[in-house]
Design brief:
This protein is an alpha/beta fold and about 375 residues long. It is built from 15 helices and 15 strands. The strands form three sheets. The protein has a nine-stranded mixed sheet with strand order 7-8-6-5-4-3-2-1-9, with helices on both faces. A three-stranded antiparallel sheet has the order 10-11-12, with no helix packed on it. Helix 1 packs parallel to helix 2 and helix 11 runs antiparallel to helix 15. It starts with a strand and ends with a helix. It binds iron/sulfur cluster.
Amino acid sequence: MRNLYIHVPFCDGKCDYCAFYSEPAPDGAMVRQWLDRILYQLEENAPRLKRTETVYFGGGTPSILPNDILKRLFAAVREVVPAAVEVSIEANPFTVTPEKAAVLTSFANRVTLGVQSFDPVLLDAVGRRKHAGPGPEEAVRNLRDAGLRNLGLDLMYALPGETPELWRHDLELALKLNPEHISAYSVTPEPGTPFAGRVAGSPEDDALSGAMWEQAGVLLGAAGLPRYEISNYARPGFESRHNSNVWHGQTYLGLGPAACSFDGADRWTQVSDLRAWLDGAPPEIDRIPRRARLGEILMMGLRTVRGWTRREFEVASGCGWDDFSTQLDELAERGLVTLAADAVAPTERGLAFWNDVAESLVFAP
Ligand code: SF4
């Protein structure tokens, strides 16, 4: 397994727009049980993790774990993943006190802060919870003081009431914090969330959201963080290695409830229920027919600006893309990809309309 993902399924409440699996009111016993099982599974999988190069702690809110739990978790991962070159952890700014920053950076060399927006009115509009504790500026200062060199900020746009001017202002505030990486996603009303219920019936403004996506590309690109994936921007050399590996068809092991894994042939997803996961509920296994799997690998790499070289695709998939030449030719004719003998990459239009690219490759006859 080239990449390891650990899902930390705890938050202190639930944001109205959130569809990620997390327990909103974890108690100490629950967290310790989760840790014990993760430590056991790390041990069990140790032989498959010797050459793993990236580790990603996602959630939920990994940074709300108490410091002693984080230290035990980090020690165990460090031992079974000796070759890790990139260790990322998601953090909520309010948790990042100087002490927490020291613990996080004792193992993670990449921290992404879930800022979402600097505008409290916009955050209210999507039901993002507020907390006492450090704001984004203070959290960044604490992480930099602790020696962090690779800082990411996560933002959302197209929030209800947001105008291009407000979005520009958020991007400018984000850039003032000098991050190496920015992820920016448009808010989506995920079915079943309170936010989706609130906006039901009001049509999504795709044109406005598309304009904000373009705006992010221009503004962040001019500031030295060019887009390298549909929703991700980085200073050169600071692209997320974990995500880039996953987009390029590499194997990954996911531990924790709701975590997904891919071994090059099958994909499996752990149950989205902490109690059931602790009780050993089996994962749901997705046996993907060969052609669909190749189409998926090809389309995921086309989320990235660099796309694929023929050689890289051959290594990831075990064969070339000749089976998809009709679809790739057609996508090139529609201006969605550029196609050469040994490389294929999305155009800007192909990134903006990636769903069309994906549909054409995954449902290829
Ligand atoms: S902090 Fe993140 S994972 Fe937790 S409820 Fe809010 S959006 Fe969901």
